[in-house]
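Page header: ASSEMBLY MODEL / two components / 977 residues total.
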Amino acid sequence: MTSNDSSKLYRDIVCPFCSLLCDDLSIRNSSEKLSLERHGCPKAVKGFERNERKVRPAIHGESVELEVALEHAASILKTSAQPLFAGCSTDVEGSRELLALAEKSGAIVDHAHGEGMMSNTLVLQSQGWITTTLAELKNRADLVIFIGTDAVTQYPRFFERLIWDQASLAGLKRNARDIVYIGEDLNSKAGVSPKGKRPSVLKCPEKEINETVSVIHALYKGLEVQANVIPARRLSALKKIVERIKTAKYGVIVWDASEFSATDGDAIIQSISSLIKEINQQSRFAGLSLGGNNGGLSFINVCAWQTGYPSRFNYNQGYPAYDPHANTTKKNLKNKSVDSLLWLSSFDNNLTAPRTEIPTIVISKPSRKYAKEAEVYIPIGTPGIDHSGNLIRTDSAVTLPLKKLRKLGLSSGSEILKKIRQMM
Amino acid sequence: MLTRLKGGIIYDPTNRVKGKKRDLYINDGKIVKKPGKNERVHKTIDVNNKVIMAGGIDIHTHIGGGKVNIARMMLPEDHQQDPVWANSVTRSGSGYVAPSTLTTGYRYAEMGYTSCFEPAMLPVNARQAHMEMADTPIVDTGAYALLGNDDFLLQLIAGKKSQNLINDYVAWTMHASQAMAIKIVNPGGINAFKFNQRKLDLDDNNSFYNLSPRKILKVLARSLHELGVPHPLHVHGCNLGVPGNVDTTLRTVDAMAGLPIHLTHVQFLSYGTEGDRKFSSGAAHIAEALNSNENISLDVGQIMFGQTITASGDSMMQYKGSVHAHPDKWVCMDIECDAGCGVVPFRYRDKNFVNALQWCIGLEIFLLAKDPWRIFLTTDHPNGAPFTMYPHLIRLLMDKSFRNDMLSTINKSARAASILDSIDREYSLYEIATMTRAAPALSLGLKDRGHLGIDACADITIYSEHENKEVMFSSPDYVFKNGEIVVKKGKVVSTPSGSTHVVKPDYDASVEKHLKKYFDRYHSMKMSNFKISDDELLGYGRESLVTHPCKPN
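Prediction written out in full:
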């Protein structure tokens, strides 16, 4: 940290706006206004440089003192027969407090990205997988296959930091890395190497991805595949991919469960996992799952260590009762099986609370919309901007520390949740 | 507040107190001397003829960090069979083999344990490991950082850098990850697996670095010795689980040439290849090696029959073992040029020859080892069995007729292949107090834990003597943590936070010049964000940070 008369520069700052958690940003604070000076991406600029409006706590659209809003939130939860805690977008500290309050309230808990994360979890719980992490990918992978995702749309610096920065501990030669895309509407521009080597792009509609992965598996095992199962052109392209897989020293398949539809996400991931396990009988290959933005990875990890379950449980009977299919935000609101909603959101302003008639407590970044619409609204700051904290990265291997960079007097989600709990 | 525990029978091996009836006094979280006549005793607790020991210390239990959390996530069926309700004192959670953090803390305390040490913390994953342990109430915690498969160290050794530079790096890692010791797992093998090597014996070479496990082990064992870290290098050796690995283990002991090491969960590394099934007990050889080499200590890693899950940093051997997964699901992971992990559920069956003999091998090692100061009671939770099986294990060690009853129910061929029924030894309460309290405290450098002398921390467990030792050790009458009653009649009554124990050897900070370059060039994070400060650690919710001194050189 350096300072001059009017501003401070913070180095090695962690960006909390996607689960890649780049930690090399330089952020300047000039009179409590932040600007991104070095590294980062459009998401980071938007996140760090946003000017938060001053919004007061409110009940039914009327400004109130914080204490009054907290009391009201506590009274809603006390009288609610079955609360739902959704959004759950916060850091590790917020997740811990959210669970403490959920337990006391007898609530169901589900993260905003519960659908995608659960596709992964269901595979973990049924067959498991072989995975890798960002630094392994960067140093080791000579073949990277993107299935159903281009990575850059949601994780803008993925290629800059992990694919084309080819410093390698494993003796991987510059430009030796091959990139393959399987999917549709993918932005494959980032897959062109700095020297102009082009990626292989296999266009494949999402509904055919699972079958395509299975065909790769069959070809890898040396089984005959009838050309009429898939188009002949695709079959010959797949044969080439399989040959490359066989020569790879360390291959990685990247996917993002949130980009698969909820109905067949776990089936696709299961096929990917089976293929990777098969290849490992001969050579090394691993998966890398992207996802869990908005604190999602932190939330399911805290849930797992505090309860044994990666979210989607109900505390109503006094213990965490896990049901990944029943304890979802969507189904419970649709079936009117909950009678209050607590929505927590502390990173992305576009992550919006579902519309519902039931009493809603919104705890989020300053929002005039929620101050007007929610039964109770309480503004909070952003972890890594307004207060310190921790977030767990997309590969679940690394937790990075978040720093407080400015003073706008915004509380953290964990402080607010704790105060509500103490009033219960 | 001065409290008297009146009339208890004290077992305190550190102070050579062997079942002596004596009052104990507690003040301000410490054990204090008998007050003078004019001093007021505020509270007297009648513990007449009850057995008093220091709080139990588990030197090797996987309670926090990424692989444990994968194990938790993988096993909803395990948790659903053992739901834990919240009450006015404790929070909810779940068991059984991979319990939630909160439940872990309560269950350890309810068993009379007050300190638990996570033995396999990946430095890169240290934050999460410490945060999980911060959510493990009551018990003190600490962790051993994993080295020996990290590319930075292997580069240093392969590049023939000085031992001093290596020592600086080891010490730096302990500071950065807030560790209290160093563990090595399958030396060089986890790294070799990333280059598709499937086996690495003591004198095989990691193909990329041209380094053998022997070389890596010697460098690290020497490093800890020279740094004066109280606990010696904590070694999970080569060829874990492979028949014939007893030879590798014995050669590892020889390779140390007197340098101190701790061999962990040695049961899994004590297999011979004799007999029709080419699987036999190497326990006698291991016990002999322990008995004749004072530089060696070990913990057993006893297996118990039933369902559990194995969670290990040894991705190479866990991958190999994944064919035995039950239920059939498993995870392997390569992690951040640092290490790896493998998580494989497993069911040990008493009618299965191999599993039954594994059970015998662990017990044979316990019973043939002569010095309880150098052998510690573990199940390598959850790998051999969940820690909640300790009272049962203690009964097996203390009660020969019970042990033989159990032995008569297991696989017949395994029974015939084991010498267990010919061993008459029964552990005494004093020996149990040694191996579960005094000895681990001494090994870890915890000067004021594991005993009941003046100024010791008042972590105390009080049991009612019972013929059935499993009953006795399952449910203490009282457990005190820092002088506060946390358990009464086997139930948690208070849930204070524990402390984190660390060791911080001196080092030359110029090692950071090398490290910063390494991080900037190869890593996925900045060196500054890798390091965990004291304030940050305390911020996770720990009572305090206890720093233990190194031994003078």
